[in-house]
Design a protein that fits this description.
Elements (H helix, E strand, L loop, with lengths): L6 H8 L3 H7 L1 H11 L14 E5 L6 H9 L8 E4 L12 E6 L6 H12 L3 E6 L2 H9 L5 E2 L15 H13 L7 H18 L9 H9 L3 E6 L4 H15 L4 E4 L17 H4 E7 L5 H16 L3 E6 L5 H22 L8 H12 L1
Parallel strand pairs: 1-2, 1-3, 3-4, 4-5, 6-7, 6-8, 8-9
């Protein structure tokens, strides 16, 4: 039996079922947060904002990128995703600063929050607790504190459905996003079916997530995306790093066409390690479809292996949710092949410990 079809062995490698249960619950995470966040009551000032700055890092950053790129052409206000300590100079009383920290303990986000206060920005947030929840409560600000009942792993990158659903619902409530609510609900239902398709119970020969994990094992993947899938490409690279403890990168068409293709010749060892994973969509714009075709030709002319995954969702939201699920399962299956525990992040923990010591 292929090890990726052996649920008992997978659980043994991972110590328990928490990661698997979290990945299987991605649809429930999105559904819970999308509906609950709409219960928040905002004062009238929040509906007059001129721009939005979302502060987040890692697994609390890429959900914002997913939402931004998915709904980019439907945004009614400018959005910036801030991923360092310093806020943009334009932040003022007409700005909504949205603090995104799953744990509520992210140093950069807490410092951004203080700066946003000093700049008199309107403030909200998404978190499951920690110091961020305490500060927002003390300030009597409207924010979404979710109960992570569908993420027993407690890892933000595996419970990222809470931030994705929460951000969609919050931005929709404030009029920053104009979206079709029925499409969101249908996409969540579609995601439930996708999860079954990628699950351990779905055998290797019919499971694209397992096939892709085997293809990437002991290789260096470049995930290639474009347009509305750009944020999910970032997410999958993040999950590959933290969940599988494996190197990865993501690149975006058309930007990569202006430089990366000339960098495939050297060093020669790249030919042995590098693989390009093309996430192809029938919903890309016509120029992007042509670029995917030609980019793949160039990569293969350089004797670099490729893998193509064609998304099946019938609209952009469904395809984004589909790729979110694929990334979670893919990185979990990779962790099994590498015999790594996806529920621990020793070097991230070490880094945070050293930051406090210095």
């Amino acid at each position: 039996m292929n090890i990726l079809d052996n649920k008992d062995q997978i659980i043994k490698f991972q110590g328990n079922k928490s990661v698997i249960e979290s990945i299987y619950s991605l649809d429930k995470q999105i559904k819970q947060s999308y509906h609950q966040v709409k219960e928040i009551r905002f004062s009238k000032e929040y509906f007059k904002i001129e721009n939005v700055v979302i502060g987040g890092m890692g697994g609390s950053r890429f959900p914002a990128l997913i939402v931004y790129h998915l709904f980019k052409d439907q945004l009614q206000k400018p959005i910036i995703i801030n991923d360092n300590y310093i806020l943009p100079g334009f932040v003022n009383k007409k700005t909504l600063f949205l603090a995104s920290s799953y744990s509520g303990t992210t140093e950069e986000v807490l410092i951004m929050l203080e700066e946003a206060k000093n700049k008199k920005a309107l403030i909200s947030g998404i978190t499951c607790g920690g110091e961020l929840a305490k500060k927002l409560n003390d300030l009597k600000l409207p924010f979404y504190q979710f109960n992570p009942e569908y993420n027993p792993s407690s890892q933000p990158r595996i419970g990222f459905g809470y931030a994705v659903g929460g951000l969609i619902g919050l931005l929709e409530t404030l009029g920053v996003l104009i979206i079709n609510k029925k499409e969101v609900e249908q996409a969540i239902n579609f995601l439930t079916k996708v999860i079954k398709k990628f699950s351990i119970e779905s055998y290797f020969e019919n499971n694209e997530a397992k096939k892709l994990a085997s293809f990437l094992f002991e290789n260096y993947p470049f995930y290639i995306v474009s347009e509305f899938l750009t944020g999910v490409g970032n997410a999958i690279a993040n999950q590959t790093n933290e969940t599988a403890k494996a190197i990865s990168d993501f690149r975006v068409i058309p930007e990569l066409n202006h430089h990366l293709m000339e960098g495939l010749k050297h060093p020669e060892i790249l030919k042995k390690l590098l693989v390009f994973v093309f996430f192809e969509s029938s919903l890309y714009s016509p120029p992007i479809k042509k670029r995917f075709l030609i980019t793949k030709e160039v990569v293969e002319k350089n004797n670099i292996k490729t893998f193509s995954y064609k998304l099946l969702g019938k609209n952009k939201i469904e395809q984004v949710f589909e790729l979110m699920a694929l990334g979670s399962f893919l990185s979990m299956y990779l962790s099994v092949l590498y015999k790594e525990n996806p529920a621990v992040i020793p070097y991230v923990d070490y880094f945070k410990k050293r930051l406090k010591e210095i």
